[in-house]
Each structure stands twice: as C-alpha cells, then as structure tokens.
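Per your request, structure below.
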C-alpha cells in the first residue's frame, strides 16, 4: 500500500447521510433536474437513501410519464440503488419536461410548491455542440424564472463546475462568486457555466441561490466506472502511454460522484449556509499525475517505463497506439480529446474546499484510493467506448 493511501472508511459518508436525514425533515417538496445524468443520478440515490423519496419531483425528458419513469429508475439502478428500492420511484416523482419547457398549469403549480430546487441539468459535453449555450444559459435562466419571488422556495442549489473559473487563475482557485470580466476557456461548456452563474445572480437577485462547483468528477468509490466512464479513459491512456504534456508533479483535482452527491444533498437541505458559493473538490489533497500512475500500476499489477513529458504533436501517435491503425476515425477523435484534457492538466489547478470542509465536514475519498475500482470495472471496455461519455 502506498504512503498516500488510506483505509476505506465510511465515517464521513455515514455522518453526512445521518445529518442529511435529520435536516431533510424541513423539506416540503424537492425538485431535482438532471436526475438521469451522472451527478444527478447519484444525487437521486442519496436523496432516496435519506428518506426523501415521497417528497422528490424529478424533471425528466420522455415521450410520456411512463417513459420518463423508466429512464429515472434505470439511472438510479445504474448509480447503485437496488432494483427493489427503485420500484419505490413512481409517477408521482416525475414531471415530464426539460429546463426550457413551456409547463402546463398543473406542472406550474407543482413548481410553485417546491421548497428546495437542485439544478443538475446541463449539456455537459466537451464537444462543440451547438446547443451548449442554449441549454446551459438560456434554458437554465428560463427555468429559474419560475421561482423568482416564490414564497415557498428556501434553497435554489445550482450545480456549476469548478473549471468555470477559466484559464487565468492562480494554482489554488478560491471559492467566490465570479466577477463580470471576460476570461479564457478551453471549452464552450465551462464558458457557459460561468455565464449562467453571473446571469442567475444579476437577473434574479431574490432567488435563494447557492452555487456549487464540483471539480473533475470521476468514477464511484464502490461502483467504479459503471455509472459513468467520463474522464477515466484519459487516465487509462496516460497510464498506458506513460507520457503526457503535463509534469508528473502537476495535481489533478478529482472527486467521486458519490462523494459529490452526498455533499450536494446536505448543502441543499441544510437550513442555513455560511456562503453562497462552494467547491466540491479534493483541494490541497489532490493527487499528482505521478501518484495516480503509480496507483494504477498497483491496481493493474503492472509497471511500465518511467513517466515522461511529451509534446502535443505526439498525441496522434499515442492515439494510434490506443486504438490501432485500422480505426483511424476513433484515433483522430482521441487525439483531439487528449489535446483538450492536456490543456486542463497543464493548468495544475487545485480548487480550495475549506468552505465545504467547515460547512459539512467534507472528507472525500482520495482518487488514488478508489482508482482500483475504476480499473476493475473498465476491464474489457475499449477506450473509444468510454470516451463517448464526454463527447455526446
């Protein structure tokens, strides 16, 4: 066992769930968006586990209520809810629609009853998808407009991303609302999340808004990559190639989806918060690239040549090594994706999480401690297949 590894402990998870269960008594009706996604699905499971199943309404796309319900149950099972418990999710937990929907009078009445809203919905794609701005900015603002001035609403928790900070920050990014100036971004997704944060604050100043910015969410501490393989494929490529454009000492701020979900749940139901902006991140405990590679060596039972830095022009060769020369289309996509993720890794960011640690006692399991589960659940799954989680 390496020096940075710690025994798997459920202490923080159990105490957080216990605390959330006690504070959930103050929730009359909780509206959740994005519940069929990676973070949202894990959050749904957490909310059910703290006893809120009869008070949750999920906004879900679907051809019908039955179709939306089937999608919701499947997402919960994928994120670890037993099949028998998933049957407790009923049509009463479903509102068919999406952020930009024109809601019926009945659904508007349901929205008006919400005492708590958690907005996880977003188009979380690193591709140049034409709908990123429409969904993440315009539709989100339209959705928030339904709660402006609500007498019932006590918390509107908006899930952003830590990388909404852009590329011009110091090594340790602080938890604070963004200013109004322009900043550079590597992908349109992070730009859209910064813009909607700004507009939510300025357009709806009466909204009881709390913004939560997860860092890089990778895997699940128990289920590994089964709920989603997002981003983990990058670590597989770097581990196999033993080279990347970032230094071995660069830190990568990673949290698991289940730790992220537990933090979101408690921030949503806690009666009062000290701040209106939080990072859900590893912070100063974020591992280095070198530490991650050594943990993956242990998980795979292999070791390779020493890690070294390469240049971006080498990504084409690395991509061909990964997929083989006969699948040149996938190789080109992997090369493009590696260039994007290299941009993030080269920033060497960690995201300060002292607010969250003080607020709820946040103690996430280090990525190097559960990377073995991600490795185990990735066996037999191709890199190109896993990559599609990020390039929808």
């Amino acid at each position: 066992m390496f020096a940075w590894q710690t025994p798997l402990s459920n202490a923080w998870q159990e105490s957080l769930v216990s605390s959330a269960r006690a504070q959930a008594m103050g929730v009359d009706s909780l509206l959740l968006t994005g519940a069929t996604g990676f973070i949202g699905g894990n959050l749904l499971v957490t909310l059910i586990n703290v006893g809120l199943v009869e008070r949750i309404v999920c906004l879900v796309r679907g051809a019908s209520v039955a179709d939306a319900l089937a999608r919701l149950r499947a997402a919960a099972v994928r994120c670890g809810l037993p099949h028998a418990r998933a049957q407790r999710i009923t049509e009463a937990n479903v509102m068919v629609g999406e952020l930009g929907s024109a809601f019926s009078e009945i659904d508007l009445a349901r929205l008006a009853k919400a005492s708590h809203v958690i907005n996880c919905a977003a188009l979380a794609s690193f591709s140049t998808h034409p709908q990123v701005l429409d969904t993440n900015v315009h539709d989100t603002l339209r959705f928030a407009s339904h709660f402006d001035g609500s007498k019932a609403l006590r918390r509107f928790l908006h899930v952003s991303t830590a990388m909404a900070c852009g590329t011009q920050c110091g090594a340790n990014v602080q938890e604070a609302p963004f200013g109004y100036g322009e900043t550079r971004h590597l992908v349109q997704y992070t730009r859209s999340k910064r813009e909607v944060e700004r507009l939510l604050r300025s357009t709806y100043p009466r909204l009881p808004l709390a913004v939560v910015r997860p860092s890089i969410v990778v895997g699940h501490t128990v289920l590994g990559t089964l709920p989603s393989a997002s981003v983990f494929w990058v670590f597989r490529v770097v581990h196999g190639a033993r080279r990347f454009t970032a230094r071995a000492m660069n830190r990568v701020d990673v949290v698991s989806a289940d730790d992220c979900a537990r933090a979101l749940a408690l921030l949503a139901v806690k009666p009062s918060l000290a701040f209106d902006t939080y990072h859900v991140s590893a912070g100063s405990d974020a591992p280095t690239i070198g530490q991650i590679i050594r943990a993956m060596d242990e998980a795979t039972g292999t070791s390779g040549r020493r890690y070294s830095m390469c240049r971006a022009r080498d990504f084409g060769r690395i991509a061909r090594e990964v997929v083989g020369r006969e699948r040149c289309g996938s190789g080109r996509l992997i090369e493009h994706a590696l260039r994007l993720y290299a941009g993030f890794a080269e920033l060497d960011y960690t995201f300060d999480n002292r607010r969250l640690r003080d607020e709820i006692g946040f103690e996430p399991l280090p990525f190097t401690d559960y990377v073995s589960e991600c490795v185990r659940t990735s066996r037999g799954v191709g890199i190109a297949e896993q990559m599609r989680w990020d390039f929808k």
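Residues 328-347 form the longest helix (20 residues).

Regards,
D.
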